[in-house]
Structure formats: structure tokens, C-alpha cells
Amino acid sequence: MQGLGNNAFCIIMNIEEFREYCLSLPKVTEDMPFDENVLVFRLHGKIFACVAMDNPDLATMKCDPEKAIELREQYSSIEGAFHWNKKFWNQVWFNQDADDKLIRSLVDHAYDEVYKKLPKRLK
User: Whole-prediction pTM value?
Assistant: First the structure.
């Protein structure tokens, strides 16, 4: 970050790091239920995030509806998810104004959104 100024931040998130972070969470599995292009991450069978292999600069994540709107207003890299219910799903572009810390927190939030709706026996 040398020479970038005081307000600069380094963004390094990519599809591999996103995958590794998702899989680091407890009881997360991955599969490709739609086709060989879309990798989804699940907690007890429930999807909380996904990435498309042919668009590796973008991830889709579950989100609380109110928070989803706030994030879209605050960050140009966060939009309602294409082909998903935009009320509950955001898509986040890597290497724009959402830094790695924010993206990891959004993965955690997506995971928590699924976790809180699991039956007690699965928690």
C-alpha cells in the first residue's frame, strides 16, 4: 500500500479466498446443484452463499432484508442478486469498494441468517 495515501485500502479477495473462508465455518459443505458452473455453500443443506465459476469476481450471499437495502445504498459493489430473491440475497463484487473485512463479515452474516432458522436439534 506504499504510496497509496491514507484513505487507500488493499483488496485481495478472490474466489479461492472466498471459498476457503466459507469452508472454514463450522459444518459448511459445498456442492454444485444447478450445474458445473455454480458452487454453493450450505449449512445443514441450506444455501447461504454461492459463486459462479464463469464470473469469479462476484459472490451471492443471503442477507437480512433491511440490512440488504442499507448495504446496497452504502456500497456500489453490492446489488440485489441476479436470479435470486433480491429481498433476501445480495451479490457482492470483489475488488471494488467492499473490502475483505466487509466481505468476510457478510459471509458471517449470511451463515448466521441460515443458522438462526435451523431447528434446535441441528444447532
Answer: 0.88
